[in-house]
Each structure stands twice: as C-alpha cells, then as structure tokens.
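Task: complex structure prediction.
Instruction: return structure tokens for all chains below.
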Amino acid sequence: MANTPDYSWPPMETRQVMGQNIKRLDGPQKSAGRAKYTSDFTRKDLLFAAYQTSPYAHARVTKVDTTPAERMPGVKAVQVVSPAGTEVQWEGTEIVAVAAVTEEIATEAVGKIKVEYEVLPHLVREDDLTKAGTHVKAAGEKTVGDPEQAFQQAEVTSDGHYGIPVVTHCCLETHGQVIEWRGDHVNCWPSTQDVTRYAGTLAPNLKVPVANIDVRMDYVGGGFGSKFAPDSWGEVCARLSQKAGGAPVKLFLDRATEQLIAGNRPSAYAKIKLGGKKDGTITAWQSESWATGGVTGGGSPPLPYIIANIPNQRQNHSAVSVNCGPQRAWRAPNNQQASYLTCCAIEDFAAKAALDPLEVFKTNLNLYAPEARRATYAWQLDKAAELAEWKQLWKLRGQGSKGAVKRGLGIGFNAWAGMGHNSQCRAIIHADGSVEIEIGTQDLGTGTRTIITQVAAETFGLPVGAVGLTIGSNQLPPDSASGGSTTVGGVSASTRKASVNALAKLYEAAAPALGVEPAQLEARGGKIQVKGGGKSLTWAEACRKIGGGGSISETGANDSRNPGGLIAAGASGIQIADVSVDTETGVVKVNRYVAVQDCGLIINPRLAESQVYGAIIMGISTALFEQRVMDEQTGRMLNADMEFYKLAGISDIGDIVVHMDIRPENDKRGVIGLGEPPAIAICAAIGNAVANAIGVRVPRIPMTPDHVLDTLDGRAV
Amino acid sequence: MQNFEYANPASLQQATALLAAKWGETDVLAGGTDLLSLMKEEIHTPKRVVNIKSIPELAGIRKAGAQVHIGALVTMDELAGSGDVPHALAAAAAGVPSPQIRHMGTVGGDLCQRPRCWYFRQGHGLLATKDGKPLIPNGENQYHAIFGGGPAYFVSASSLGPALIALNARIKLVSAKGSRELPVKEFFIQPKDDATREIALRPDEILTEIIVPAATHSSTYEVRQREALDWPLATASVALSMKGNTVAAARIVMGHVAPTPWESAAAAKALVGKPVNEETAQAAGKAAVAGAHPLSHNAYKVQLAKVAVKRALLDAVQARA
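Output:
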C-alpha cells in the first residue's frame, strides 16, 4: 500500500459505538453462571492434585517419605517439590504434591506423606524496626538541596509516623491450572493474566518446544498483578500429568496457601518530617522509611509521591527481610504506599499550619508535580471538592461535629502511566458479511472483550452484535500480559489498525461496483458509501464483492515504543473521602467517596466508571479492614483465610461518586490505561479523613477500632 | 477433611443412641456453619457425624404461659423474626453476621460452637500453647479475652449466650440416659486445661431447647467493625425489671470479652434504684469493666465493652412498637 492508512480515532462528536455505554458483553454469561472459569474445568478423566506445604516459616527439610501416599488406591502421581535438604523460607512453601482420582483422595494422600524438618530461626514481622536486627538492609539514601538549612528556616514543621501493612491479593479464583501432557504436546488451561506468554515461560522448565504448548483461558477470577507467570505450580501440575500417563490434572491452591504464597503487597512504614512556609508551601522533606516484600526485602515506594520536586530532601529507606511469602505486583505496585505516606504527611503539615488542606495540596502539586499534570490536578482538586461539598462540610482538624460520631474529609492523589502494551490483532471479514476479531489477550473482568468489539464495530460502521470476537488462546495473534493498566491501550490500538486494514481491502472489493476509488469510501451505519453521501452498498452487499467463499484477513499491531497517536501514558486523579468515626467504638464508616479521574479517550464510559468503582471498593477494603496478621512466636500467618482476613462487604462501602475527566483536551491524548490509578489513593484519603474527624493521626492502616481507639486513648499503635 | 460415618436419625431417641461417651468420637450436625469448618481444618475429626436436622421435636418456637420454648433447630433468622421472644434475644440473633449464617445457623449451634480463637483454629488447643507455653498473652491477642484471668484467653463465640443469661433462661440437655435442665449461665465453662470443653454439654448429650422467661425491658448491643461477615468485638445484653422509671433489678452480661459470657453484678448494682439515662448507663458501663485485665493488644476492648453496656441499656428503655 502506497500510503499509510489513517488509523486515527474518529473525532469525539462523530463516534457511533465508541463512547457508548455498551453493557459488558460477557455480563449475561457471568451472571447466569454460564461463563466457565478454569477452576470450573471438569472432564471425566480429570485428576485432582493437592499440596502438602510447610507449617514453618524457616526450616530445612530433612526427610520426605512419600510411600504412604503412593500405596493409596486412587493415587496416580506424586511429585516432590522440596526434597530433603531444601531450606524453606516461608510458611506455605510447597513440599510435595499428589494427583489422584478425587480431590478427597488427593488431600488425604498428601496429608499422609511424612515430612520432617529441622526448624530454623525466623522473623515474620517488620512493623517494629528495632526488633528486625540483621534482617534490615539499607536500601537507598538520598539528599537533595540543603535539608538542614531548609528545616532551620521553616516557619512550620510537622512530624508524623505512618504505616501501611502487607495485604494479600485475595483473588476469588485462587492460583492454579489444568494441564494435560500427552506425548510431546502439553495442553494448559491456566488462570492467568498472560495467555500469550504462558507457554514461553513454561516451556524451558518442561523442555518442550513452545510450539507444542497450547494455552486456553476464557475467564479469570481475579489477578490484580499476581497471575503473570505459570509459577512453580504450573510445572508441578504438568509433571503430575506426565507421571499419570497424560491425564489432565487440576491443581489449584487452597485458600490458606493462596494467602500465604500466591502474592502480597509490600508494607511501608515511615517517619516523615515536613518543613515549609505559613502559606502552605512545603520546602523540606525528610523521611526514614522501611518496608518488606518477603525474604528478599523489597517494597520501595517512590517518595515524595508526585510532589517529587520538593527542593530540599533527605531520605533513607531500609528493606526488611521476613520469612513470609514473596511480594507480587498489587494493582499499582508501590503507589498506594507512596500515596499514603506522602498525602498523610501533607495533611499533617496543613493541620499544623491550620490551613485548608485543599489549598495546601493545590499549592504543592502546582509547584512540585510533573509540569504536564499540574493544570489537571488543579482542575481535579476543584471538581472533587465541589462533588464532596468540601466548602460546606470541611472543618479544621478536630473542629467538626459534637457528640461521639465525628465526621471528617480527606484528600489523596494518584498518578499512573498506563501506556498500551504490544498487541497484535487479526480482523477477518467474510463474504457473507460476518466479521471476526482475534487477539491472544485476556479479559480480567475489566471489560476487554467489550471495548475490543466496540473499536471494531466503530471502525466497520456496524453494531457491536455484528462483530464476533475470540480471545484467550496462544494460537491467536500475540498480545501481552494484562498488567500495568496496559491492556486497553494495546488492544484498542491493534484492533483499530487491523480493522482499518481489513476495511481498506473491503473498499477495494466494493469500489468498482460504486464506480469510485477505494479512498472515496467510508463505512457508516451498516453501509459502505461514497464519502459525503451518494451511492452506497449495504455491508452485506459490499462483502459479497469479496467473492464467493472468500475472506479478507488483515492484521494490525500496537508497538508500545511507537504508539502512533492512538494511545498515550499518564493518568491522574484526585479523591476525597468523607467518613464518620464513632469515637466510642472506633468504627469508621465511609459516607461518601469521590473520585475524579482522567484516562484520555474513553471507549466505554460505563466500563471506565466500573473500573473506578472496583478500584475504590478494593481500596476501601484495604483502608478499613485488610492486614496480614503474623505471629512471631509460631512464624505463622493467623488469618490465612477470608474470615479474619477481612474484606469489605457491599454494605461496608458507602456511596461512591465517580467523575470521569473527559474534557476534550484529555480525549485528544488517546487511550490510557485505567485499571490501576484509581486504586492508589484510598488509604491516603481515608486516613486523612479520619485524622480530620477525630483530631489526631491514626498512624497505621487499616482504620480498625483497635487502631482508632488506641490512638484516641494515647496507647502505642 | 477426614472420612466419617454419616447418621441421619429421625427421632431424638435414635439420635442420642448414636452419640459416643467420649469427645472426639461423634459430632452433632445442625446448621453446620461451624462444624464443617472445624472438620475441614481437622480440628474436629469425628468418626461419626449425627445429623439432627430431621428431628421434628427440635424445631419451632412455642409459647407456654410466661415462658417461651425455643427448639435447638430454630435458626437465627426465625429467632430474629419471632415476635414471641424478648427483644434482647431477637436483637442478638439479628446481629449474627451474614444472612447465610443466620439462615443456616441454629440456636443449638450458636451455643455449642467452638471458639474462633485463631490459635485454637491452627491446632494449638483451647488454651493455645506451644511447647507448654501460652501463646496468647504475648501474641496476637487483639480479639481475645479481657476478663477471666487465664489460662483460657479465647472468647466465647456465642451470640445468644449473653442475652440468654441476662434473661435468666434455662437450657435442656438430653442423652440416652435421661434429660437435665440447667441455667444457661452454668452451661458455659472456663476451662483450666485443654481436655475440658468450654460448655457443660456432655459428649453423649444433645441440646434440645432453651426456655426463656418473658421480659419487658431488654436489649443487646454489639460492636462489630464490618457489616459483612464479621465476629463482634464486644457485646452486651441487658434485662431490666422496671418500677416506674427506675430499675428494680438488672442483669447485665457482656459477650466476646471472656471465655464465657461475662456477667457483671457490679454494673447491675450501679443501676438499681435509678432511672436509665446517659449518665447512669455510662456509670453502669464503667462498673461493668472495672475488673478487666486486658492483654498486650486488646485494651481497646475495655472501651468497647463499656460502650456496649451503655448502649444496650439505653436501647432497653426505648419504647418499641
């Protein structure tokens, strides 16, 4: 083709399908239970696998005797994962797995395997740094400007200490897969965020060519950043199938093991001092922070978050190694922690200066946020304040309501990149008029199916019902992992390009019948017509020109390094929490939660809003309830369940008000990912609202009655 | 979960004949909301499970004069919705977390359920020890006892127990050998060793019914963080005999603060002869927690128990439609 086709998005005002609140296409399947997740997989010859895991946080395996399991009728395969000599570094480490004809036999058999340990010393808590001893490693010091002088000259200084604990991902569908290894072919049905690369990651361990590994997944029950790789259980599952003569084996983690080893978000703790002027301008930042993400330490929140250009800074950060399951990416890794620590410090500074924090946030974002985002934050602060009725409801810290129940408001901010990932799409137009779109991507429940279909339908001038879509297989054009809020950008760009390319071929087929050049045609309203009106063919008539039995099949690709104007990076948002705190019981309730969020061009406002709702619900859950409780005496997690690992229920959420910032200047930037940014600032906003309500800072998330009452009564939190 | 024999008797007589004389051999299944978790975690590994749901005589709420007989199989939902039981009891049942548990969970199950203590549920026994040393005093005791003084530090999980004690209810227990009745207060036990159960039920007995006297002024208040499934942090149930506007007699029982429901005579005494108002209710709350001995992480529960008593008292004297 001589000229590069014009892939650019149709102007906002001419869009027919994009921008519409199309209902989630797989909604009926999901709500009626017809959507089959991998964990629903069933087949007559299916074997069930179970693990025995380490009850110790730190130990050396000295003996694994599998004979009791091997002797049991119904047991088809036994796979030792941690043989004698292995040093176990956290509770829940997989020791041995058994596959059997029923789940009950597998569980019973694996329980009979005798494992002996030499127990070694452990550390499982990092919240008190003074008790962490040699587990603490320096992880970065930084000085900017002259912090000493800046603090000396400061008109206002504020001090605070803050903490946000380890939380787990709590995917409703635990990690796992079904695998059958028949001859030299391996068929995998994983629960994954990365259908395309699953085979490539698994293949070297199995020593099977990637080409011989088939991967399929229709639905996944949550990932949040914890399901990128096949993991050790992928390989173990394959080995069990191999040993069992190729029968499919289903290996899913039980809830406790899921909580222990399948991912968690690192903690972060900090002592932060701010200095600045009476007008609210911050001039100096000092922080001593520490965090853990497991044995390797980890967790390094970028401080100060967003207001990174404070001219004078002194920071030091330590990583604490604990004998707990390893961290994984958790919906905007490092950002919730950084947002919490930074926004709380700003709020405390504003309270110390007796200023309205709305103004203090505005002043400092305007001075120190990345230049491209400053105007957006200023607009969003005003919009969020309007929706939260800030002017009417906000009172100086602790000056609010009389009586036991105190109301307060608090602010948090977020930022995220969200550039679309590499993606390829195939668009097929058949001579009978039917249309298929194929991408090897996955829909994490975010609405990916729906937005791909909308982009294709928009391009072809068809309703969404006329476009078929296949995703969820590595036999399709390759996509990438759904992580980092990159999917919507990747798949929308590749779909747009593939669809434009296919349409160009259809124009070539149809043009002679209309007596014009292909370039004079457009697809609108179910027709292929001459631009500016005039002659037209219906979509079906035009497709018949492809020729009997023929098809057009064209591909399109998004290259994240060269996005070509369809997509962009850089979303930001402001959120305001309005809470009530019962100071007699310490119970915090969210009255209203306001989120103002931009994410560029929005393909489906309803689904975009749903993403923000989901993020806020997840965030409120972490702000009020969630924490991993570790017992130093036994080295074990005490709430590796969903009973004492508390998640918010629907009546714990309060009212959520979402305002998508769809001003034309944002639309022009193209599509930007949205999964992560709205999940970042919730602990910050709620923490600040609680401080505003009760007059003192509750230093540690979650805002539980013990943390709130201990703070009010002057006990250590 | 280990394999077990499942028995489905149609009468109380058949059921009691199926129960063993030793704990650990047999378990009784009603709503199953606790037993199934215990069996999955292998905290209970009964050889036989005796389902009592098909026994008609254990169902239903029956009024007899000034008393109400509540069958062991009555669910929390039925109890919460019954107009025949005192308010403190209906409110306690309504407070049981999650519609699923209220729908399945029974009166008998509520009274016989095992402690939720996470050390107990991880297999460290009722007294929660490791290598002979108690884990709770220096451990994660944020949900544990502030009364009782050990060596048991778990809290009684019963939602109805405090209300039934405040209402002076009695409990009926039946075995193959006969039946006995005792005040609900005597049903709960503070174990001094791991072998003792926290309730007076014998392994070969079935709890068949509760007999509750009428009460005009009673209430239950619970402090619970989540609206979704969550166990209370502290509760209080109160029953008052009023003489005009003043309290003639009172029973005040706190829940989730000790290995048994914890009655406070001091709180009752503080109220007698006085009207119930913010001031007297607060004083009663204060008296109720005077003897509390919190552990390292649960001092906040003293405040919660205090406010639960206050709010239950204020609610008990509210006029109800």
